């Protein structure tokens, strides 16, 4: 069994070979004593493979290398950091564009207000000039 100790997946492969060597254990509907009583058509207990002990999750989990898990976690954390950075950059870009939109809207409304004020003041100045010229004309006569 020195080969199993050197290869991380060897123990798992060995367990799978044992499990596959017993055909009854690979059928999840098989029962050690045959069909379940009261089940039509010979339907059997679906939990018999777990009850027989042919599946040993502990041996499968022992064969996973903890260093590999740590490496994968580290890689996923790096991707998570990159995604968070990308998300914050996107959020800042959206906020900057919203601020530009609001600034343009305020400049437009300020321009419209200034145009209205200029029009009103020019109309007022024209009316004042007309009244003054009428007053001068009436005083000359």
Summarize the structure.
The chain has 141 residues and is an all-alpha fold. The protein is built from six helices and no strands.
Describe this structure in words.
The structure is a single chain. With 141 residues, this protein is mainly α. It folds into two domains: 1-64, no CATH class; 65-141. The protein has six helices and no strands. The chain has helices at residues 2-6, 10-21, 23-26, 48-51, 57-62, 66-140. The relative contact order is 0.06. The model is unreliable at 33-39 (pLDDT under 50).
Query: How many DSSP E strands?
Result: 0
Class from secondary-structure proportions? mainly alpha
In the predicted model, the low-confidence regions spanning at least 5 consecutive residues are 33-39
Which outline best applies? Answer: rod-shaped
The whole-number mean of residue pLDDT values reads: 76
What kind of sheet is the major sheet?
none
Count the domains. Answer: 2
Terminal CA distance:
132 Å
Radius of gyration: 43 Å
| SSE arrangement, N to C | HHHHHH
Strand content: under 5%
What fraction, in percent, of the residue positions are helical? over 70%
**Total helical elements:** 6
Topology at a glance:
Elements lengths: L1 H5 L3 H12 L1 H4 L21 H4 L5 H6 L3 H75 L1
């Amino acid at each position: 069994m020195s080969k199993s100790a050197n290869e991380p997946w060897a123990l798992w492969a060995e367990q799978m070979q044992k499990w596959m060597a017993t055909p009854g254990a690979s059928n999840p509907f098989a029962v050690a004593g045959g069909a379940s009583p009261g089940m039509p058509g010979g339907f059997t207990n679906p939990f018999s493979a777990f009850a027989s002990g042919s599946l040993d999750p502990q041996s499968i989990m022992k064969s996973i290398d903890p260093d590999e898990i740590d490496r994968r976690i580290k890689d996923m954390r790096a991707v998570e950091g990159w995604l968070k950075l990308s998300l914050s950059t996107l959020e800042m870009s959206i906020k900057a564009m919203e601020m530009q939109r609001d600034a343009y809207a305020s400049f437009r409304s300020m321009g419209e207000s200034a145009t209205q004020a200029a029009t009103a003041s020019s109309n007022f100045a024209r009316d004042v000039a007309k009244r003054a010229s009428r007053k001068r004309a009436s005083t000359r006569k």
